[in-house]
Amino acid sequence: MTKDEKYSIAKWAMEHAVQNGAQQARVSIYNNNSSQIEVREEKIDKLQESNRSGMQINLYVDNKYSSISTNRITNKEELGKFIVEAIAGTKYLAEDEFRTLPDPKRYYKGDGPDLKSMDPKFTSVDPQQKVKDAFALEKEVFGSDERIISVSASYRDGMSGSVMVASNGFKGDTENTYYSLSASVSVTDGEARPSGNWYESSIFNDELIRKDIGKKALKRALDRLGQAKIGSGKMPMIVENKVAGNSLGPLISALNGYAIQQKQSFLIGMKGERIGSDLMTIVDDPFIVSGRGSRLFDSEGMATKKMPLVENGILKNYYIDTYYGKKLEMEATTGGTTNLVFKPGEKDLEGLLADIDRGILVTGFNGGNNNGATGDFSYGIEGFLVEKGKRIQPVAEMNITGSFKQLWKDLVAVGNDVDPSRSWRLPSLVFDNVDFSGI
């Protein structure tokens, strides 16, 4: 289905909804094409292709709201009946005066830059080459070390596109692609069976890194041989950039309008207040060319803008969509993240470790939980004991406990090793005085 055909159907569905009792309507038509290949023991373990398309309709009827979806969108008679029945069903729902489309002044007007989020060569990639890439990744390490138990490698790609129209004037479309290669290796030297993982991803097939992924996964697995608990205590915690999102995620969730309205945020009423150390500066930047989270408008059609979240530890903004903006009597910003950019420091990971007399480098989080209302957390971790700037001992089966209210105030160092392949562009981070529970 072409973009013009999608727009034609979306416009018809929107107008049909308004003509049959909806005061407002928003319609999105989407398609998602993806493939996944997994190899194990020099054989294809999984081969999957998916092609999906459908429509989502948001209906605003007599101060009542519903969101419905269908993948049967080519037969207008059938689609029209579906919409009319959905409108009738919406009338039985409870009234919610805060449900409305955004102010048209906030809409994206179609004059944004090309963010280069779509690989035009996506449909011409040779399927056989995808299989070869996965096997080549496994071959890097398969049989290379007698301690290897298993090796798995995978290739994934995807293309998504959507058009969206709203009855009060919005019209916009998006297209995105991604490619990724990943490897997982398990090893043993006795009862323990640690594993290591590595992956690379890109928006463009020509830019996807294909070499040394398996070797890096194997090294991470071998480095974990001999994992053990160490004594409990308060120590600095160095969080590797690839898992730094585990530390930031609960804070971002606490900035969401839903969490604030439901009293499930430990950051309620904190705008303009200190929530972290001076080293904590984060910007939400939707305009990074080929950024994994880049976009010109959000899920409601509101134009995106570069937005400071935290400046030198001071909270500057929340994520507030139209609905929660009205409920909370707050200005709407946007409903979710784009590219989160953490202001980097000057040292790489090894430079950060060199400043540590005794602490733990965290390279993985294993389960746990956090309380959104209080900020309290408890997580399982694995990584390495660091002494005098050197990795001394791999550690596992340990826990960290504390509160995010204090953790970010104890941020004492920030790395320069930002991973640009992710939408959350985070460096390695060093926190002081973290409670570790072990022996």
Tell me the name of the CATH homologous superfamily of the largest domain: PmbA/TldD superfamily
Strand order of the largest sheet: 3-2-1-4-5-6
Strand content: 35-45%
Described by the principal axes of the CA atoms, the overall outline is globular
The N- to C-terminal Cα distance equals 60 Å
Helix-strand layout with pairing:
Elements lengths: L2 H17 L4 E17 L2 E19 L2 E7 L5 H15 L36 H13 L8 E19 L4 E17 L7 E8 L10 H10 L10 E7 L5 H10 L2 H5 L20 E3 L22 E5 L2 E2 L6 H7 L11 E3 L6 H6 L3 E13 L5 E12 L2 E14 H4 L3 E4 L9 E2 L3 E9 L2
Parallel strand pairs: 7-12, 11-16
Antiparallel strand pairs: 1-2, 1-4, 2-3, 4-5, 5-6, 7-17, 8-9, 8-11, 9-10, 12-13, 13-14, 14-17, 15-17
Helix pairs in contact: 1-2
Explain what the structure shows.
The termini are far apart. The longest helix has 17 residues, at 3-19. The strands form three sheets. The protein has a six-stranded antiparallel sheet with strand order 3-2-1-4-5-6. It has a five-stranded mixed β-barrel with strand order 7-12-13-14-17. A five-stranded mixed sheet has the order 10-9-8-11-16, with no helix packed on it. Helix 1 crosses helix 2. It is an alpha+beta fold and 439 residues long. The protein has helices at residues 3-19, 76-90, 127-139, 213-222, 245-254, 257-261, 322-328, 349-354, 404-407, and strands spanning 24-40, 43-61, 64-70, 148-166, 171-187, 195-202, 233-239, 282-284, 307-311, 314-315, 340-342, 358-370, 376-387, 390-403, 411-414, 424-425, 429-437. The protein folds into two domains: 3-222, PmbA/TldD superfamily (PmbA/TldD fold), CATH 3.30.2290; 228-439, no CATH class.
